């Protein structure tokens, strides 16, 4: 992830991937299902939910890009057709920033002398719109990749058991690995949202634990109900 530009997609895609997949694992464990069933349900969740999340990301980011491009065309049209009004809007922007008198007029003149700088100022300071160099497809792929990779963590113990027939409490080991992954993702989430590290780790861990407990109880109750 060069320059960490896709870190937000990794964090939120990864968090959703590990939470939903571990919920599937916990529900299957609560129902006492065989490890092969856990793997099938887990991979079905990874593919279906991961694809759904990436499509949602693509559509949302494409909509944002279309919105930005629409307002960009409007600002260029306004600068060309009604420059006096455009200059006054720039003047008001910098009055709010505290500029006055000759200094204000020099800034307005400098900005409005370059059409691209003029429009860019209007987009950022008037409309609060910023361009995103990342394409909607690349962001969707980053989201899906994070979802799939982190979602494999709760399933890794079951996959190992399926191929190597290990002797251990599969759900316990899956829970430990998932808890560690929750903490790591929480730390990355804190970095993205600029909040205390402990807070992000605790929030993510609590969210995952809550989802797992509910899924485990649901699986256990349903298994008893239908058995």
> End-to-end distance, in Å?
48 Å
How can the largest sheet be summarized? none
Helix proportion range: over 70%
Class of secondary structure makeup: mainly alpha
Number of helices: 8
DSSP strand tally: 0
Estimate the global geometry from the Cα principal axes: elongated
Structural Rg? 25 Å
Series of H and E elements: HHHHHHHH
**What amount of the residues lies in strands?**
under 5%
- pLDDT averaged residue by residue: 86
Low-confidence stretches: none
Question: What's this entry about, in short?
Answer:
With 227 residues, this protein is an all-alpha fold.
Could you walk me through the main structural features you see in this protein, from its secondary elements to its overall organization?
The chain is an all-alpha fold and 227 residues long. The chain is built from eight helices and no strands. The chain has helices spanning 7-30, 35-81, 83-96, 101-112, 115-126, 136-164, 170-193, 197-226. Helix 1 (7-30) runs antiparallel to helix 2, helix 2 crosses helix 5 (115-126) and helix 6 (136-164) runs antiparallel to helix 7.
